[in-house]
């Protein structure tokens, strides 16, 4: 009797374990069922596009329009932050059999509780709910309800950022254009001997002098500037052509080097002798200036 009771207890435990395992497998939809691998936009993402709004769903199975048709159309629900349900279009990607696309239906007009037409808005949170009954071509289902929540892009803020960047770009272009123009004017002035051309009509209007007088004066300035520029160019050419005279047997070196820098330790004493001679001559010159005759030591 006791042995029979033990056997029944063991059988009951085995049945319970198998039942729980099967229940868990079917509940999470991960064993033998369809699995949602990723989405775009992802859950809790921000910056979703407003124009051509759509959500891409990537599954591990095969889902095609030829097999499923409209069977999965009712498995999706898109709601805004106020709980309003938006009209949708469900499509399959013929090039990627594991991808589905859920789009906002711009051609269907649907209103909220206040009578406003529902549209995708910026800086707004949306939730896409996916039913557990979503089916693949082979009959596998998702197994459990899933949802993703994301936020659309803040269009006004992005517009301000873009406008600010454009202003910075234009300011930079204007700055560098003015700087290059100023540099070019300075280079022209330097090349032309300091002459800067003026508009004779504006100058006549400003000073009250005749245009002919202004033109004559400007021609004189231009001629003097040209002569000055020619002299400067000639001097520059002379400097470039100048070569110092080097006696035969002597050579030009890049830098002066002492005997010690070449490794020699020989001391000639010529430096000390030259210094002594210079000091002696300085004393003689000082005595001669005072009318005294110096003595040689």
Please outline the helices and strands.
Blueprint: H1 2-28, E1 36-40, E2 54-59, H2 65-68, E3 76-79, E4 85-86, E5 88-92, E6 99-104, E7 125-130, E8 146-151, H3 155-191, H4 200-207, H5 211-241, H6 270-289
Antiparallel strand pairs: 1-2, 2-6, 3-4, 3-7, 5-6, 7-8
Helix pairs in contact: 4-5
Nearest-integer average pLDDT: 79
Strand order of the largest sheet: 1-2-6-5
Poorly predicted spans: 20-32
Oligomer: single chain
Order of helices and strands: HEEHEEEEEEHHHH
The number of helical runs is 6
Helix vs. strand class: alpha+beta
Structural account:
The structure is a single chain. With 297 residues, this protein is an alpha+beta fold. The model is unreliable at 20-32 (pLDDT under 50). The termini are far apart. It has a four-stranded antiparallel β-sheet, with no helix packed on it. It has helices at 2-28, 65-68, 155-191, 200-207, 211-241, 270-289, and strands spanning 36-40, 54-59, 76-79, 85-86, 88-92, 99-104, 125-130, 146-151. It is built from six helices and eight strands. Helix content is 43%, strand content 13%.
């Amino acid at each position: 009797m006791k042995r029979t009771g033990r056997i029944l207890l063991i059988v009951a435990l085995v049945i319970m374990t198998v039942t729980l395992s099967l229940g868990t497998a079917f509940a999470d939809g991960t064993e033998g069922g369809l699995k949602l691998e990723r989405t775009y936009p992802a859950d809790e993402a921000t910056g979703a596009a407003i124009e051509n709004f759509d959500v891409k769903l990537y599954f591990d199975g095969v889902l095609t329009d030829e097999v499923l048709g409209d069977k999965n159309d009712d498995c999706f629900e898109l709601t805004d932050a106020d709980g309003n349900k938006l009209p949708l279009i469900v499509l399959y990607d013929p090039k990627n059999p594991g991808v589905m696309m859920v789009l906002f239906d711009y051609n269907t007009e649907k209103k909220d509780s206040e009578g406003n037409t529902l549209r995708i808005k910026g800086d707004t949170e949306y939730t896409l709910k996916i039913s557990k009954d979503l089916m693949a071509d082979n009959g596998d289902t998702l197994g459990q309800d899933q949802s993703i929540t994301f936020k659309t892009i803040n269009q006004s803020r992005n517009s301000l950022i873009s406008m600010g960047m454009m202003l910075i770009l234009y300011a930079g272009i204007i700055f560098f254009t003015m700087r290059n123009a100023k540099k070019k004017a300075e280079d022209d002035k330097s090349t032309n001997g300091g002459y800067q051309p003026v508009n004779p009509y504006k100058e006549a209007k400003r000073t009250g002098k005749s245009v002919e007088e202004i033109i004559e004066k400007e021609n004189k300035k231009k001629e003097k500037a040209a002569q000055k520029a020619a002299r400067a160019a000639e001097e520059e050419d002379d400097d470039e052509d100048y070569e110092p005279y080097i006696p035969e047997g002597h050579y030009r070196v890049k830098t002066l080097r002492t005997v010690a820098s070449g490794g020699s330790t020989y001391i000639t004493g010529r430096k000390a002798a030259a210094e002594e001679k210079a000091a002696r001559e300085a004393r003689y010159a000082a005595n001669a200036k005072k009318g005294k005759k110096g003595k040689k030591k």
